[in-house]
Design goal:
6 helices, seven-stranded parallel β-sheet, alpha/beta, 151 residues, Rossmann fold
Length: 151
């Protein structure tokens, strides 16, 4: 299975690295930001650097849409996994719009219990499997699967 792991650096990347017992057994490629923590955590991994900042930055959204288009065509993943943030949006939507047989999995971050993240709201409509870490998060994401805390 070919996995594309897409997410911001910092806490989002930390959450995805906690899933290493699962993804370490598969062919994988990462898309994240070229930051000190990402360089350290992903040393030796196959990585494409996305453009940041992404928070309400239309220019970088467009630039990351080009990155998403290129990486989806080049890598041809079987599944895209993300914990957010905004860098995930073009990957999830382009995957759905190109009608490829690529599944999407979104894991809502652990620290947003009282409201959904903007990325979760944007990716939710095109996510095949939506995961949450707290029972309280299920009220914002009907149909989400409770997986518990990912540390």
């Amino acid at each position: 299975m070919k996995i594309l792991l897409v997410g911001s650096s910092g806490g989002h990347l930390t959450q995805m690295t906690c899933l290493s017992p699962w993804w370490s057994e598969h062919d994988r490629h990462w898309v994240t930001f070229d930051t000190a923590d990402a360089l350290s955590k992903l040393e030796g991994e196959s990585v494409t650097w996305a453009h940041h900042p992404t928070t309400r930055n239309v220019r970088n959204l467009l630039r990351n849409t080009v990155v998403a288009w290129r990486e989806l065509r080049r890598y041809r993943p079987d599944v895209i996994v993300s914990t957010g943030a905004a860098v995930a949006v073009p990957f999830f939507w382009l995957s759905r719009l190109t009608a490829r047989e690529c599944r999407t999995v979104y894991l809502e971050v652990i620290d947003r219990v009282d409201s959904p993240t903007l990325t979760a709201r944007l990716c939710g409509p095109v996510t095949d499997l939506f995961l949450v870490q707290w029972p309280e998060q299920q009220q914002f994401h009907p149909g989400a699967v409770l997986v518990g805390k990912v540390w």
